[in-house]
Each structure stands twice: as structure tokens, then as C-alpha cells.
Inverse folding.
């Protein structure tokens, strides 16, 4: 009973327990033998597919390419979003313009733009980057702008009284103050673009030599290598978890938690 | 404690409900003999016999009361998935996707050949006359990885460039109509490995020429499409199986003997006028023939290139008796028809 109590009280152990339970249920359904291995492969063969594809370098190459595309798009998207937000902060006329286009484009799923991207830029990296940038900049602008506009007047006045002007005022007062919003913007931008990327790669198949995880799923599907499809899904989930729970959590710790902007949660 | 137990039980119930829901269609398909025949098809001239059989009620002719349900699917991959899910009894597909499914344990075999047709790789670039002329930025489109077009390209790559995967890095998966439009507008892709009517359309445009054709790649004639039936249909509903095989045979003969009438029937479904349809149906190399050729040649190549893990020991592993008998088994040395199942040395 002691172990049970420990498990039910520790958060991480609890999560591990739930995952183990899910895997157990999975393996139970496999073991009933009612389902073809092509529909529901056993955990062993998925694990083997994962190890094989990592050993052969395929998984690394695919993951690397996906991350490269995301990184590139995030860089472009961030610069664009910050530029547009800065312009919007300078004049209310531009602000209305930025707000309008954000309202128009934000609800549009990136993948829906794929046919147009293909028409304009053809098959290849450019089209995917366009879609990713689209799924990145609007939530980023929306959040950054909201963040900057909600910087309290008192804080700004204090900054000015301390003699801060121009960029110094922006970097010392406005950015830290708006940071929770900016971070949220990045979180949404990341998850949007990650989803769009996998979807885009699967829809138009990219090109054989340079495709990411979506292309891998697409390709393995045609060769009925279901364990590899699950292995790629596993990697996608893993990266999602790592970025959200490790990278973003760490950034939060270094910034807004350290600055005392959020109440630290008791674990 | 008590509450968590209840939650667990609820979760377990939910899972088992989902599970039994998913298993149900497969079970009914096995128990009750189907009077509906669920046929999966794709789009192209290779599927013409299906359309003709449907229009002329040739399946019903051999089994009155038979209901034929059509599923239009986009690629061999989607058909494989529909088969695994037990949603399809019969499908028409290229030999390679069939072999991939067979290799992975789908219980299906060839029920009939459908056609021999010219497949080919086209380009609009004047300076491309062999596979070696494709540069790293020249993309070659085919419908899907593992499709017959992809496998033929790999065969040609092995012959001309020494490795079956030499061109995989510049391959793009595109649907036939999209790729044909791209090639004819000289956009995005430099080459398109495709099948009728798309290669005929492409070749009708000035400046587009064939780089390599299927027969060169394979080494001899081969069957483009086969009709594949589930073991379940064959075992539990032999009448429907036989009606399907006979319907295909009669429709194929009809197209060969009466191409003009067939063109009139087919034109609307292809969105072409009768004259063009007739031109395509009678294009040199078109043959609606039900004895398959090249079954073993494809499987040997695909094993060597790593696309599948096993090959059939004999034709009967991958074809039903009506097909095995059509090919025959000559005592002593193999007959010509048996030899034609393999690629020439």
C-alpha cells in the first residue's frame, strides 16, 4: 500500500503510471489477436521500427529536416511579426491595418493555403515555409501587440522617470512587461506550425530526398509499414512534449517566473 | 480510492466498446455471404473494363441480383487500407501495391489481369534523353511511393544508373492529373512517369517526349493492372467471385472487339469526347487482356530493391486457380506464358 500511495501522490510517477496503463491497454488489444498487425502493431515491433529507423539514420534525417523547416520559418515569422508589431505601435493607422489583416488571416488554417502556395512557389521548401510563416506570424502579432498595449502606464512613467528613453525603454520595461503575452504567442505559433508542417508534408508528399516526418509517415503508409508510421508519430509527440514541457517551461522559469510575474505553482 | 476504481472501469468499458465496434464489420463480412460486391477503383484507362462491365450489367449477367458498390479511391495505398479494414471485396491496382499488401499479410490474390498498356516517363526538356540527364533539381513525379510507376522508374534507374534508388531523391508524389498539368505547363517538375490517358495527353503536346517507357524498364511486356479479390470473397462467395471474373473478361473482350462502342460508353466518365477516347483506346500497345504477365518479375525486383521481404514460391501463392490455370504449368520446361511471368535475363 505504501508504493501505491507514493504513486498516487507523486505527479511524475502518476503520469508514468497513466502512460504505462495506456500501453498496457494497447498491448492487451494486440494480444487478443483480433486485429491485424497492419492495423494495430504490437509495441515490440513499433519499438523495433523506432530503433531501426534511428540506427539507419532515416529518423534523424527526417526529424532534422522538419526541425530545420520549423526553425527557418520561426526565424522569418518572428522578424516579420516583431516588425509589424513595432510599426503598429508607432501609428494607430498602421495598427488598424495590422489588426485587420490579423483578423482576416488568423482563422485560416495553414494547410488550406497549400494549393495557392503550390501555385505561387511550386513544389518544395518555399511553399512549406510560406505555410509555416503564415501559421506563425498571426498569433505572434496578436499576442505581442496585446502584450505591448497592456503595459501599464505607471510602469512606463516609472521607466521614463528613471531616464529610460527609446529602445532602452522598450527593452527594459515594455518587453519584460509584455513577455507573458509574447511567450504565449510563441507557444501558439510553435504548435500551429508543427501541426501545419506534418499536415503539409503528408498532403503533397514533398519530394523524396528532402522530406520531414510527415513525408516519412506518408511513405511508410504506402509500403504498409505500420510500425514505422507509429514510430514517426511517437517522435512527433515526443518533440511536442519536449518543446512545450522542457524548452518553454525553462524559458518561463528564466523569465517571467524569475521576474515574479506569475505565481509559482506548488508541485 | 473508490472513485478512481470507477474511473478505471469506465475507461475499460469505453475501450472495449470502441474495440467491438471496430471489429463488427469484419465479422459480419465473414459470416453472411455477400450479395453486394464492393469494388474499389481508381481513375484511368486501365479501369475501363470495370466501367464497361458496370454499364452493360455484365456482373449481374452471371449472378442476377448482385449489387455492385463502387468505391472511388485515390491511390493503391488507400485501397490497401480499405482492404485491411474489410471494406472492399475486389480492387483493381498495379502489381506492385498488390505485392506490398501480399507481403505484409493481407489475404488477397489476383483474380484476373486487366490490361497491358504503355506506361512511360515524359519530359519537356530537350536536353533530357536518358535518366542520367536528370539533374538534382529536376523533379520526377509519380502517383505514390510503391506505385507501379515508381517501381518501373526504379527498374529503369537500376538499368541505366546502376542503382534502383538513384532517383528516389528527386521523386515527388503527385496525383496523375496534377502532375500532367504541371508537366504540360513546364512548371515544378521535369519528368512525369505515368499511365494512359495521361501520357497520351502529354505526348499530344508539341515538345514533350518520352525518356523511358515501361517495357524498356521491365525488359518485356507486363500487366499494368490486376483485379485483386479477398480470400474471404473467394472462399465464402464463389458465385460473386465468378461473376466478377466473367464480367471483367467479357468487358475486356468487348473493348478489344468494339472499341468505337466502348469509346461512346466511356467518353463521359473520362470527360473526353468520343473521338479522343477512341484514339486512346486504340493507341498502339493498348490491350485489354485478362491473363497477367510479369507477376514474378515485379516480386523478384521488389525483393532485391528492398520494397518487400518475401517473394511467392509459385504463381498459386499470389493468384486464384482460374488465373493459375490460364497461365498453366507445362511439364518439363516452362511454357512461354510461364516464362513471361519473369523479367528476361
Amino acid at each position: 500500500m505504501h508504493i501505491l500511495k507514493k504513486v498516487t501522490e507523486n505527479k511524475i510517477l502518476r503520469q508514468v503510471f497513466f502512460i504505462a496503463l495506456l500501453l498496457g491497454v494497447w498491448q492487451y488489444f494486440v494480444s487478443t489477436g483480433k486485429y491485424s498487425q497492419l492495423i494495430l502493431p504490437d509495441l515490440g515491433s513499433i519499438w523495433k521500427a523506432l530503433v531501426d529507423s534511428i540506427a539507419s539514420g532515416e529518423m534523424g534525417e527526417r526529424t532534422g529536416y522538419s526541425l530545420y523547416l520549423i526553425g527557418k520559418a520561426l526565424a522569418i515569422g518572428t522578424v516579420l511579426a516583431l516588425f509589424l508589431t513595432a510599426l503598429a505601435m508607432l501609428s494607430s493607422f498602421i495598427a488598424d491595418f495590422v489588426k485587420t489583416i490579423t483578423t482576416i488571416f488568423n482563422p485560416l488554417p495553414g494547410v488550406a493555403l497549400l494549393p495557392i502556395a503550390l501555385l505561387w512557389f511550386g513544389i518544395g521548401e518555399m511553399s512549406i515555409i510560406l505555410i509555416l510563416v503564415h501559421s506563425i506570424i498571426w498569433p505572434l502579432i496578436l499576442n505581442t501587440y496585446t502584450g505591448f498595449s497592456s503595459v501599464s502606464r505607471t510602469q512606463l512613467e516609472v521607466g521614463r522617470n528613471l531616464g529610460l528613453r527609446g529602445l532602452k525603454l522598450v527593452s527594459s520595461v515594455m518587453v519584460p512587461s509584455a513577455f507573458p503575452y509574447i511567450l504565449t504567442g510563441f507557444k501558439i505559433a510553435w504548435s500551429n506550425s508543427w501541426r501545419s508542417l506534418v499536415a503539409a508534408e503528408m498532403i503533397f508528399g514533398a519530394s523524396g530526398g528532402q522530406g520531414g516526418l510527415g513525408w516519412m509517415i506518408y511513405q511508410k503508409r504506402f509500403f504498409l509499414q505500420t510500425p514505422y508510421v507509429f514510430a514517426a508519430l511517437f517522435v512527433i509527440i515526443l518533440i511536442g512534449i519536449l518543446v512545450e514541457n522542457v524548452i518553454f517551461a525553462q524559458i518561463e522559469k528564466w523569465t517571467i517566473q524569475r521576474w515574479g510575474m506569475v505565481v509559482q505553482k506548488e508541485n | 480510492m473508490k472513485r478512481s476504481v470507477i474511473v478505471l472501469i469506465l475507461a475499460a468499458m469505453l475501450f472495449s466498446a470502441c474495440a467491438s465496434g471496430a471489429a463488427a464489420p469484419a465479422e459480419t463480412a465473414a459470416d453472411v455471404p455477400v450479395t453486394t460486391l464492393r469494388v474499389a477503383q481508381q481513375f484511368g484507362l486501365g479501369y475501363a473494363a470495370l466501367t464497361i462491365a458496370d454499364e452493360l450489367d455484365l456482373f449481374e449477367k452471371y449472378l442476377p441480383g448482385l449489387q455492385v458498390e463502387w468505391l472511388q479511391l485515390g491511390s493503391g495505398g488507400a485501397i490497401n487500407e480499405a482492404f485491411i479494414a474489410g471494406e472492399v471485396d475486389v480492387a483493381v491496382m498495379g502489381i506492385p501495391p498488390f505485392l506490398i499488401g501480399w507481403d505484409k499479410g493481407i489475404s488477397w490474390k489476383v483474380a484476373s489481369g486487366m490490361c497491358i498498356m504503355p506506361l512511360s516517363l515524359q519530359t519537356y526538356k530537350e536536353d533530357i534523353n536518358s535518366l542520367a540527364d536528370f539533374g538534382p533539381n529536376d523533379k520526377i513525379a509519380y502517383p505514390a511511393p510503391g506505385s507501379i510507376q515508381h517501381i518501373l522508374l526504379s527498374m529503369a534507374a537500376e538499368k541505366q544508373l546502376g542503382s534502383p534508388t538513384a532517383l528516389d531523391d528527386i521523386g515527388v508524389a503527385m496525383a496523375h492529373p496534377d502532375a500532367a498539368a504541371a508537366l504540360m505547363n513546364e512548371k515544378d517538375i521535369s519528368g512525369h512517369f505515368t499511365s494512359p490517358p495521361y501520357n497520351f495527353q502529354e505526348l499530344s503536346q508539341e515538345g514533350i517526349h518520352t525518356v523511358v517507357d515501361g517495357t524498356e524498364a521491365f525488359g518485356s511486356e507486363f500487366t499494368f493492372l490486376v483485379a485483386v479479390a479477398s480470400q474471404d470473397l473467394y472462399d465464402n462467395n464463389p458465385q460473386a467471385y465468378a461473376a466478377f471474373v466473367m464480367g471483367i473478361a467479357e468487358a475486356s473482350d468487348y473493348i478489344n472487339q468494339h472499341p468505337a462502342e466502348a469509346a461512346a460508353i466511356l467518353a463521359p466518365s473520362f470527360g473526353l469526347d468520343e473521338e479522343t477516347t477512341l484514339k486512346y483506346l486504340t493507341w498502339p500497345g493498348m490491350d485489354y487482356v485478362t491473363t497477367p504477365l510479369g507477376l514474378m518479375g515485379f516480386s523478384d525486383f521488389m525483393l532485391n530493391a528492398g520494397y518487400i521481404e518475401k517473394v511467392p514460391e509459385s504463381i498459386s501463392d499470389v493468384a486464384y486457380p482460374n488465373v493459375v490455370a490460364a497461365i498453366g504449368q507445362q511439364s518439363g520446361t516452362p511454357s512461354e506464358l510461364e516464362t513471361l511471368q519473369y523479367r528476361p535475363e
Chain B has two domains: 29-116+222-339, 120-218. The first helix of chain B runs from residue 2 to 31.
